[in-house]
Structures are given as structure tokens and as C-alpha cells.
Amino acid sequence: MSTRKAIFPAKPHALYQEHGYSPAIASGDLLFVSGMVGAREDGTPEPELAAQVQLAFDNLQGVLAGAGGTFDNVVDLTFFLVDPEASVGLVLEAMKRAFPLEPLPNVTAVGVNWLAGFQVEIKVIARIPALEAGSSGDTGVSY
């Protein structure tokens, strides 16, 4: 039996298939989410920065839901920012909307040079007890 299971959102964008990776991998009750970007359904970046940041959070929410979780399950959050001065305020605003209550997840932000046309990427580890029990909301989407 495999110790890992691919998790997909209900409406996956094109990048997963195009680049050959899973949006998230569940192992036991842990969910390791690939870097979420503000990709439209066709895989292209949302052009406006604030909208791109929000879409990255929306895409993250879809993956968490695919595993039967929510933002409340997130324990570790890493942001990769191409232009930290331009994006950190928008990221922090979106984070406050996604995580309005304590305890808040731990956060790391890293400035990077390139994200394949995107300005922000969000990497997450979540603990979702329902995964270990086998009752996740996995959509079963595969490529």
C-alpha cells in the first residue's frame, strides 16, 4: 500500500498536467501542498498582482478542500515573493482573511528571482486528521 496519495482540487488548473506534478500529497494525516500560484484555469498567471495573490489563496483553498480540510488545518506556511516590497502587504492582507483566528500558522517569507511568470507562490503543510482515517474529500482526479 502506498504511503502517499495525490490530492487534487475539484477544478484543477492546467499546470499540474502540463508540468507533471500533484497539487498535494497526503501521507498519514499530513498534507504537503505544492507551491500554489495565482494560475487561471488554463495555467496562465492572473495579471493584476492583488488578484494574483487572491487567486493563489483560492487555489490553495481548493486543494485543502480536496483533502477534506480548510485553512484551519494549515500549520506551516511559506511565501515566495519575486518583488517582496510590492507584494508583502497584499499577501499579509490575504493571509488575515484566510486565517482570521488564532492560533495562526507559522510563516516564512522568501524573496526569489523567478517564479515562471508568477509574482507569489504559497507552500503549505497541513495536518488533516480525516486523511489518516481515510475519509478525505479527495476528488479522485488523476492524469
CATH topology-level name: 60s Ribosomal Protein L30, Chain: A
Q: Which ranges are low-confidence, i.e. pLDDT below 50, for 5 or more consecutive residues?
A: 135-143
Oligomer: single chain
The proportion of strand residues reads 25-35%
> Rounded to an integer, what's the Rg over CA atoms?
14 Å
First CA to last CA: what distance? 20 Å
Biggest sheet, in brief?
6 strands, mixed
Placed side by side, the strands forming the largest sheet appear as: 1-2-3-6-4-5
For CATH, the homologous superfamily is named as RutC-like
Query: Number of domains in the coordinates?
Result: 1
Estimated structural class:
alpha+beta
SSE succession = EHEEHEHEEH
How many beta-strand elements? 6
What is the CATH architecture assignment?
A: 2-Layer Sandwich
Give the count of helical stretches: 4
Rough outline = globular
Task: Sum up the structure in keywords.
alpha+beta, 60s Ribosomal Protein L30, Chain: A, 143 residues, 6 strands, globular
